[in-house]
Amino acid sequence: MENLQSAAPLHNGVKMPWLGLGVFKVKDGDEVVQSVKSAIKAGYKSIDTAAVYQNEEGVGQAIKEAGVPREELFITTKVWNSDQGYDSTINAFETSLKKLGLDYIDLYLIHWPVKGKYKETWKALETLYKEKRVKAIGVSNFQIHHLEDLMQEAEINPMVNQVELHPLLNQAELRDFCKKQDIQIEAWSPLAQGELLENAVLKEIAQKYSKSVAQVILRWDLQNEIVTIPKSVKEHRIIENADVFDFELSSEDMDKISGLNENRRVGPDPDNFDF
Length: 275
Description:
Helices cover 39% and strands 15% of the residues.
């Protein structure tokens, strides 16, 4: 993990950058265009969006305007819950592709484990993968029991599981399971939506390394082999978030950060959501 181009090999051989930009709650239009362009300019290769974020068009515009060869970028989007099911997932994919203005997607994810629907949805993802319209397929917000259920019938195992993950919710058990199954774990909301930035333990560790709390958390992710996608719309913060490749946390500090775990979510519970 030397720089923003450093990538995790997925189980099908595709390489996914360890650090990317998330655009959840970033407004379509100028806000998302500028933040994605700032990230690409700063050397980011990975951009994570979703149909439900309603900013795929802006992401697509930024990619176009950034002028970086398409094959150098890694673009993720996700099928929303109301579009789950076989045919509707294929249609939703076409819509996302069109909005992004791309010929293919690098990673396509099932956004949430909608009961009674995610298996059919997964079949659609397998079809898209076989047709080489996506480079990799995966899931988001899946617990161990969801993964076990899905993999009983899946032809292709998920390559990625993107979940809420931060020091207050370190997902140790899920991480172990995914490692054994060769599923790459990816963290959304790695900074617990900013909640962790005033944490005393993290502030002390940050001071020791002359880094920000955000940089320390993102470094903890990387050293735990967790792909991470912090969100920001401010150029200086986007650049700062990426400045995590020039230091290493000691095993003692890694343990201190892991010890902050409270199994506490800032987002919805994958076993109990109604959207």
